[in-house]
Design goal:
The chain is α+β, with helices and mostly antiparallel strands. Helices cover about 40% and strands about 25% of the residues. The longest helix is centred in the N-terminal third of the chain and has 42 residues.
Amino acid sequence: MGIGEERQESQSQSEGKVWNFLKLPFRHSTASTSNSVSSLARSLLPTRRRLKLDPSNKLYFPYEPGKQAKSAIRIKNTSKSNVAFKFQTNAPKSCFMRPPGGVLTPGESIVAIVFKFVEPPQNNEKPEKTGLKFKIMSMKVKGSIDYVPEMFGELKDQVTVEQILQVVFLDPERNSPALEKLRLHLAEANAAAEARKRAPEDAGPKILGEGLVIDEWKERRERYLAKQQGEMVMDSI
């Protein structure tokens, strides 16, 4: 074999090695890209809801400054398993939910009541411009399990945000479909609370009566106002 043929063969072998080397990362890159695309596609899919809410994305309160207002929302488990739900708000000092959370069996529904102290407006701010929000979260649970708020922190990777509820104030002197539905929901929730009071003690878990809820809410608010006044006094010294 001549020198030219040896050089040509050596060059051919080198090119083959380079080509094989280049093909390996390309195959790995393709697999990695495919996995990334699959993950992205899954993330873009709409989250399957476990709860049906009514109203679906708002909480309506009668606008009465200086008074305690009540809103209501129906929560129904539309899944095939037990579901725990939990309320969260960006104004925990002025709001109270009854119940703040619970466990619903498949097809079960409950009307939850939200209590809020309506502050007088500042700088002629319109009530509908409030930034108050509520979040309802859900989590699938196995079997019959009692609700504890800590379960949402311990198993947060299994928690789904069902909806962010915007607060809307209504004129209590002006009839509207939203105000009429609110009154019906409140009447249903109050009737259910009265039925639980008359039920035997061993009929199941109890939900705090309205008086107890309001008393606790008042105590929390009084402590909050006292703390604020104390901070104002310290600032003025």
